[in-house]
TrEMBL record:
This is DUF1566 domain-containing protein. It comes from Legionella anisa.
Length: 358
């Protein structure tokens, strides 16, 4: 009798891979990463590890470090991307000698935010003020997810601006939150940028600064000038009498012009109809701006060249302290910032807004 031995050889156990994460959420145009690890207990390297994306899907592999052989205990990364939103999609990851692990990839648009309140003309920070400028930020209703960590991301032109963003840590679609802005430093109008850690856009806004009774229109190293609030503007003649006031012709120095004008009989003889005197009547620090100072006001506060100006509630024609001749003085027109010295003579009633330095 012959004895026989039958030996059956089973398939090799193969490499065992794990994947992290198994659910991937990413934004359109962005990259999501998945880490594949060949277990330390695998008997052999994992060969040709790759992702199998369903036909017709807009998801694609952006890059892979897996190569042809993944050593025992080693890891590699596959990155995914998509140009458009894609619903939950099952993607198989395996190698030629490994188990298969399925992951779910979902692609959505990033949330869109906007600055919704207050209107541009009211985006003013009061220096040393007790009440902050409350800037309302809204996550658009069509945004697919919450907007996260919204704050002022760029304030390079007003670095000492303080921002309380505690109410804007996570903002649901259609909801709004407030960024609270304060400052103990005066600045000319500055552009700020608002963004979130996951937002598709970063809206910008000009903000202005109210200081010592007026809007700041110039500032350098802590020194600057303000133009008085619109509630304090008045109408007046330049002077009621025609006079060649020597020394009142500076295009840049409203302080010097004002001092000369108020001491001239054309003004001192009829102070009720003297624009420069009306500024001095507020307090000695206030003066009638020279024409080029008015240009600086326009450039800072009405750079949009349209009504309403970005800030300041300006309207039409404003007297400067710069005399042109015996009969005429320079004035500036809003919203375009046009200089003129002939349309209105000195005894015309134009708007007066005073300035002061700090």
């Amino acid at each position: 009798m012959t004895n026989s031995l039958n030996i059956t050889r089973g398939p090799a156990a193969g490499a065992v891979i794990t994947v992290n994460p198994t659910s991937l959420n990413l934004f359109t145009g962005k990259i999501g990463l998945v880490t594949i690890t060949n277990s330390v207990t695998s008997p052999e390297p994992a060969y040709n590890v790759s992702a199998s994306i369903p036909s017709g899907s807009n998801i694609s592999v952006q890059s892979t470090t897996c190569g042809t052989s993944l050593a025992i205990g080693a890891s590699c990364i596959i990155s995914f991307t998509a140009p458009v939103p894609v619903g939950p999609t099952n993607i198989a990851i395996n190698g030629t000698n490994t188990n298969t692990v399925n992951i779910t990839v979902t692609v959505t648009n990033q949330p869109q935010i906007s600055i919704t309140n207050p209107v541009q003309q009211s985006r003013v920070v009061t220096v040393f003020g007790m009440t902050p400028l409350s800037l309302e930020i809204t996550n658009n209703a069509g945004s697919p997810v919450n907007a996260q960590a919204i704050t002022v991301s760029n304030k390079a032109d007003c670095p000492n601006l303080s921002v309380d963003d505690s109410a804007c840590s996570s903002l649901a679609p259609g909801a709004s939150c407030l960024l609270e802005l304060t400052s103990n430093t005066p600045y000319a109008p500055c552009m700020i940028t608002v963004s979130g850690s996951n937002t598709a856009n970063s809206p910008q806004s000009l903000i202005a600064f109210f200081h010592l009774g007026g809007l700041v229109f110039q500032e350098s190293n802590g020194n600057g000038k303000v133009i008085i609030d619109s509630a304090q503007q008045i109408n007046s003649q330049w002077t009621s009498l025609f006079s060649d006031i020597a020394g009142a012709t500076s295009l840049d120095d409203g302080v010097a012009n004002t001092a000369v004008i108020v001491s001239d009989p054309a003004c001192s003889g009829d102070t009720a109809n003297c624009a420069a005197q009306k500024c001095q009547d507020i307090s000695p620090e206030w003066y009638l701006p020279a024409i080029n100072e008015w240009s600086a006001v326009h450039n800072a506060l009405c750079s949009n060249n349209a009504f309403p100006c970005n800030f300041g509630n300006f309207s039409f024609w404003y007297w400067s302290s710069s005399q042109f001749d015996t009969t005429f003085a320079w004035f500036l027109g809003f919203p375009l910032g046009v200089h003129n010295n002939t349309v209105f003579n000195k005894n015309s009633n134009l708007t007066v807004r005073c300035a002061r330095a700090f």
